[in-house]
Design goal:
The chain is mainly alpha-helical and about 80 residues long. It has one domain: Winged helix-like DNA-binding domain superfamily/Winged helix DNA-binding domain (Arc Repressor Mutant, subunit A), CATH 1.10.10. It is globular, with a radius of gyration of 14 Å. The mean pLDDT is about 90.
């Protein structure tokens, strides 16, 4: 998992600090939205020839990592 997550870069000067893939201007959220909309891995790789299959896996790993963080909800 650590190896995959190392493909995700976060730089304040790039894409307003949003997580990107390997320093490129391809945001993790864009890839996740395409997957959620039903695009296949093959379609995404064809649309973004600089991406590698592990980049898509890294986006999923990043999302899984975020989803595993606890969320504290204030009592009303």
């Amino acid at each position: 998992m650590t190896e995959l997550l190392s493909r995700i870069t976060i730089r304040p000067e790039q894409c307003h600090g949003r997580p990107c893939i390997r320093g490129m201007h391809i945001r993790v959220s864009d890839i996740l939205e395409m997957l959620a909309a039903g695009s296949s891995k093959e379609e995404i790789l064809a649309d973004y020839p600089d991406l590698e299959p592990d980049d898509i896996r890294a986006c999923l790993a990043y999302a899984a990592n975020l989803a595993g963080h606890p969320v504290v909800v204030a009592a009303e």
